[in-house]
Amino acid sequence: MRLLKVLFIFLMLLCIFIPSVNAEIIQVDTDFDGKMDQWRHLSDDGKIIKIEYDKNGDNNIDQVDIYEMKNIPIRAEWDRNFDGKMDQIQFYNPDGSLMRVEKDSQFSGKFDWNEKMGPNGRISSLEVDNNQDGSIDIWKKFDKNGKLIQVKYDDNYNGTVDRWELFDGTVSLKEAQFDTNEDGMPDQFQFFTVPTQIQRIEFDTNTDGKVDLWEYYSQDGELDRVELDRNFDGKVDMVKRK
């Protein structure tokens, strides 16, 4: 009996000295339409724990900013298509700058998009699980200014990169490389003057790591000349003109 009494007193002291995390919820009608559309969850000492939003007025939460009693949010979640499921999560650095974005880009219930930011807040890399099998199959790399410089693809979803695209810091494709025999190494190289204008194509036909066939194209996109290294010694020994 005495033990029960001591335990009861201990529990009462916990209730007195440990503050409730969700001490208060403030409801706000931000657009004055008669419907509450924002809920601010505060701690006992008035610090924001999280803020919930109903952006489209359907009485469902479609955005949540998580503060955890900090002055700036550490995470934000969105239901972008208002189907009742959160499909985008943003993570923030301690200084409030954006650190990472995860998305369910196809609204399928699977997060397939991972976007990372550099120190200046601009995108530095993007990984995509295009077929949503749980493995990344598109990798995008950006320069310090957020300009696309390289994309790698696993087009046949076998876990190995088989296509590479190189950009010139703009949207213009400079070079594309292909692994046609699935050995993990490129053996076909396409070069462009503008994104849709092929300039030449190089082939490593015997997959020894050296180019031995060159195709050159005119400004009209027509094949103009073919050069071959038939004995694979690194020197052109046949030229065909169209």
Task: Summarize the structure in words.
This protein is mainly β. It has a domain at 19-111. 7% of the residues lie in helices and 40% in strands. It contains 1 helix and 18 strands. The protein has one helix at residues 2-17, and strands at residues 24-28, 38-42, 48-53, 63-66, 75-78, 88-92, 98-103, 113-117, 123-128, 138-142, 148-153, 163-167, 173-178, 188-194, 197-203, 213-217, 223-228, 238-241. It has an 18-stranded antiparallel sheet, with no helix packed on it. Strand 12 (163-167) and strand 13 (173-178) form a beta hairpin. The longest helix is centred in the first third of the chain and has 16 residues, at 2-17. The chain is elongated and about 85 Å long. The protein starts with a helix and ends with a strand. The model is unreliable at 3-22 (pLDDT under 50).
Per-chain topology:
Blueprint: H1 2-17, E1 24-28, E2 38-42, E3 48-53, E4 63-66, E5 75-78, E6 88-92, E7 98-103, E8 113-117, E9 123-128, E10 138-142, E11 148-153, E12 163-167, E13 173-178, E14 188-194, E15 197-203, E16 213-217, E17 223-228, E18 238-241
Antiparallel strand pairs: 1-2, 2-3, 3-4, 4-5, 5-6, 6-7, 7-8, 8-9, 9-10, 10-11, 11-12, 12-13, 13-14, 14-15, 15-16, 16-17, 17-18
Number of strands: 18
Low-confidence stretches: 3-22
H-E string: HEEEEEEEEEEEEEEEEEE
The shape, in one word, is: elongated
Briefly characterize the structure.
With 242 residues, this protein is mainly beta. 7% of the residues lie in helices and 40% in strands. It contains one helix and 18 strands.
